[in-house]
Amino acid sequence: PLGQEHLDGHRPVEKLVTPQVHHPHPPSAQLTLQPVLAVEQLGAFRREASALASVRDEHVVGVYSFGQHHQQPFFVMEFVRGAALGAIIAQHTRHGTFVPLHRAMTILTQVARGLSAVHRAGVLHRDVKPDNILIEEGTGRPVLIDFGLVNLLRGNRIEGNAEGTPDYMAPEVWQPMLGPVTHATDVYALGCTAYELLAGRPPFHDVTTVPQLMSSHMMRQPTPLATVRPEVAAFDPVLRRAMAKDPAERLGDPQELTAALGEAAPQEARPQLASLPGLPLPLQPTTERPGGRGPVRILVIDDDPIFQKVIARAAQIAFYDTPPQIVTVGSGTEALTQAAQNPPDLVLLDYNMPELNGLDTLSRLRALKNGAQARVLVVSGSARTLERWPFAVLGVQDFYDKTGGLPPLVALIGQVAEQIGLRPKTS
């Protein structure tokens, strides 16, 4: 981002407009100082900051406050600790694989929802790309960040010069004579982002210079997904519409794009929980916590009944002074049914399970309405040798090997619980 940045990791500040959005853990604050601006620029800065502060969506980085200090404009925004989606895609590519389709669809759906909220506030992002989407550590929440290039809309137009990142820039950004930069411009960039998330590479990965990229975005069609990853061939017509050269021919809204992708996706890849065979209804939370949190909810997922008891016992000991509500299940399908009805605070997850393994189960859990609120600890008999990088796209950082014994597991559960405020910190 432009300007100087300062991080306050201890004192969250209140938003000017308090959003009705649940963040699983209290956010930290990041202060950005902008250069001294001219009077007309200062007015634009204030309008932009005010508009962004009004955005109420958990998938958009929050703007908490803004103002001036000694003629230097500043704004305070949410600090999100996590990995950039671009780095996660690159990591999968290095290992010769793709981001799992269900998880990719969930990320796109949630980011599109956030981008639509930005548009409703009268703002364009203008630099939508994988590197500007963070996967929050601990929750797996995708967050759209870096509004350093955002300008206010005037009607259906923007103020300022066209900017962006060449791999994701629409034709009208390269050539303003083609028309104004509008919501459709962000849809184009989201289409490019979707292509990269699904294919593991940008739409025009075969060219590297700016003039070549300009020509490609103006004149060429991307390599069909069918030739890169046959299982997602059905998405090609949707992405062609999202990345149409003529803005008038594009899908008109970010959520229209992801809805069309959802219709084209195989049933098991759709973000909706109901797309998974064998899951009963209802799929909405049936237990609320009016007037207070109530006991901490812990979900133990392990197909071995003996280890179910061991893990549950470790959780009981870790919460010895505040008895938790512990539910044990033996399969991913059971876990999702339980999590949909009673969203857990902490999930103790075995990786090696039949049918849905730990990754598949967690991917679907993260797609639930309250899926980001759960902190996940992967407990596996192969945790020491388990490749951990695939879990980054789900925000998982905590692993434990079952062969380590009960006391270390109790200690780790307690440590994780303290980190996220489920238990008071011990002195």
Write the layout of secondary structure elements.
Elements: E1 4-8, E2 28-33, H1 39-53, E3 63-69, E4 72-79, E5 82-84, H2 85-94, H3 101-120, E6 123-124, E7 133-136, E8 142-144, E9 151-154, E10 157-158, H4 171-174, H5 183-199, H6 210-219, H7 225-228, H8 236-242, H9 254-264, E11 297-301, H10 305-318, E12 325-329, H11 332-341, E13 346-349, H12 358-366, E14 375-380, E15 398-401, H13 406-419
Parallel strand pairs: 11-12, 11-13, 13-14, 14-15
Antiparallel strand pairs: 1-2, 2-4, 3-4, 5-7, 6-9, 7-8, 9-10
Summarize the entry for a quick read.
Helix 10 crosses helix 13 (406-419).
Shape designation = globular
CATH architecture of the largest domain: Orthogonal Bundle
Separation of termini? 37 Å
The CATH class of the largest domain, by name, is: Mainly Alpha
The average pLDDT is: 82
Please, what is the CATH homologous superfamily of the largest domain? Answer: Transferase(Phosphotransferase) domain 1
Strand order of the largest sheet: 12-11-13-14-15
Helical segment tally?
13
Helix content: 25-40%
Taking all Cα atoms into account, the compactness measure Rg is: 23 Å
Order of helices and strands: EEHEEEHHEEEEEHHHHHHEHEHEHEEH
Our estimate of the beta-strand percent is 15-25%
Give the domain tally. 3
Residue stretches low in confidence (pLDDT < 50, at least 5 long) are 1-7, 9-26, 149-161, 280-291
For the biggest sheet, the summary is: 5 strands, parallel
Number of strands: 15
How is the CATH topology of the largest domain named?
Answer: Transferase(Phosphotransferase), domain 1
What is the SS-derived class? alpha/beta
